[in-house]
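Tutorial, part two.
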Amino acid sequence: VIASSGGEIPFTAVVTPLDYTSSNTINVDQDFEVDWGDGSFSPYSAGDAIAIASNAATGIITVQSANAPTQIKFLTDTFTTIDITESSSLTIANSMCEHLTNLTSFDMADASNIYGFATSWWDCTGLTSFPAIDTSSGLYFNSCWLGCTGLTSFPVIDVSSSPSLNTTWSGCSGLLAFPPIDTTGRTSVNNAWQGCSSLTSFPLLNFSSVTDFVGAWWNCTGLLSMPAIDTSAGTAFGNTFSCCSSLVCLSTLDTTLQVSTSGLFTGTTVLVAPDGTEQTALLAGSNYVNGSPCP
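Running the prediction step on this input gives:
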């Protein structure tokens, strides 16, 4: 099916190339076609399309398909903006923009059918913000925004279908605040915010079902305090607050069910609440409630 023939187009992406000398590679899992910027579409079978962008006409790359693709990947770090304007057929975004360090803007019209977001924007260091796309069907967010060091803000997204948020925002060192997303029912936040070193505070999220807190805030060196989060279901606390070198105060921490607490407080050199005795008890398994609210 030739998408430019006038039929219904369930998928369209408009992309700005980095330059007109580099080779660009785009992968689609159904037959598709590409206008590389010269105003004419070239057909491709499912798989890779490789070409140098042209500025003979628009200079903008347009990818489209009438064959309802479920997945697209931008495989070369040669794109500065990606706007997926028709995307209702997509169900998988795994590795879609992985390692696109030159990408400064991304948008997607419809992500409501996508269940896989693993490593989708891993290492997109040029992104400073992210759109509030519909992630309500997302089952997998592993390493989704891992290493997005340029992000300073983040929207409220829906993670209600995903059991875990492992390494989802790990290494987002420029993130200044984290939104109050609904984490009800999530069971693992393993290394979820590891290395988010610009965070100075954290919202009161629902962690009542979380069992795995391993490395959750590891190396969040700017974090000053934590609200009264519910960790009563937690069993794994290895390195949860390790290297949080500015952390002064925890409102609560319940490690009663712990099976591992190794490194829980390693490098928390200015932590005074809980104090040393209370920290020792927490390492062995106890429930700490701060008598005074954290500042």
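Residues 276-284 form the longest helix (9 residues). In part three we will examine how such features are distributed along the chain.
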